[in-house]
Amino acid sequence: MSLYLDYNASTPVDVRVLDTMTNAYKCFYGNPDSRTHDYGTNAHKQVEKAREQVASLLGIAKNEVIFTSGATESDNLAVLGLAEHGINTNKKHIITTAIEHKAILKPFKILKEQGFEVDFISPDESGRIDAQELLSKVRSDTLLVSVMHANNETGIIQPVQEIGQALCDTETYFHIDAAQSCGKLVDELKLLKYDLLSLTAHKMYGPQGIGALVLRTKKYKKPPIKPIMFGGDHESGLRPGTLPVALILGLGKACEIAEQEKAMNLEVYRTTKKQIMDAITSSGVEFEINGDPQHSMPNTLNISFLGVDSEALMLATKQYCSISNGSACTSHDYSHSHVLTAMGLSDECIESAIRISWGKGRFDISAFQKIMGTIKELV
Question: Residue limits of the Aminotransferase class V domain (predicted)?
């Protein structure tokens, strides 16, 4: 097997999470909303335990957690679910950044087509937006501001703490896409002020197909979200459909592990980053780091090996490693990265850019050195 370096796309499932899910499939197969028998009641108790585990990781109340199929659904529900309130209150101005995941950009474009006014804030070459520039765009009719915590392509951490602090006493709702940071920047997330937050399990050693939308209570009220799918009254009437008990328990266990092992994991991420940078630097290959390394996720590196096309590089190193040149959700699209383009990078830099992202396990530095040897031959 090749060295897996695409953890920002998806992580493997922790064996303890897998054990929890296997047990759930065996023991808790009742519908958690069937309260007339023990099978349903026991499943419901397990779901609520998992809800507490998610809430504990974030430092919030468990009734603020709504289970979804993942961050994409959570993002859509956060944005589109507020639209009716915006129309009814004549607050039809929304703000986001030009470097968001498509799960935010596309719902914003849908609302723009429906008559909402949208401001897209671009970053500078560091990959970070200017919080004051964004806040200067906020008006009395601004319904929503949505900013990702950490970018999925570059790993650059956005100034969400400053933005959240500024918006916390206003009537503008603040949404954070924490798909990449949840489970990694554990202490930082607990300090943030926000109204809505999206997360997913499969970026933190949980299963694919499960996530959550957090709706914080402010002045005894939660954000006035309306459902975007219709059916039963599950999840406070916001997300219809039978709850996938095993997946939910997998998410809960992944959150519990992330909280328990946060310090150890952070140390591993940072140590691995140093190993990777040392190997790249000592190879003699010309490179540029894309984004400000002082405001970067500890497990992510977006780098351009100048003169080497990223597609050719990925093919040449396929036997050694699994890497990407952008978001997995748009990897079939060979157009330039919208993130790197928004940062104002040169075409040469964008065309040679790859994303390297790693996990909490032991890093095979010898395999990575082979990769650098192949890259050196391509230059």
Answer: 4-357
Tokens of 59: 């430092």
Read off the pTM.
0.96
Amino acid occupying residue 25: Y
> Does the active-site annotation cover 329?
yes
Q: Which of 27, 168, 182, 329 is catalytic?
A: 329
Let me know if 359 is exposed, middle or buried by CB neighbors in 10 A (0-12, 13-18, 19+): buried
Which amino acid appears at position 192 of this protein?
Answer: L
Span 300-354, pLDDT tens digits:
999 999 889 999 999 988 888 898 886 555 545 557 899 999 999 999 999 999 9
Domain boundaries, the chain: 3-10+262-378, 15-257
Instruction: Domain 15-257: state its class.
Output: alpha beta
Q: Which helix (H) or strand (E) holds 243?
A: none
- Does 3-10+262-378 match 15-257 in CATH topology? no
Classify 283 in phi/psi space as left (phi over 0), alpha (psi -120 to 50) or beta.
Answer: alpha
Reported as a single tens digit per residue, the pLDDT across 294-315 is 999 999 999 999 889 999 999 9
| CA-wise closest residue to 181 among 195, 208, 161 | 161
- Please name the fold of domain 3-10+262-378: Aspartate Aminotransferase, domain 1 (3.90.1150)
Containing H/E element for 374? helix 365-378
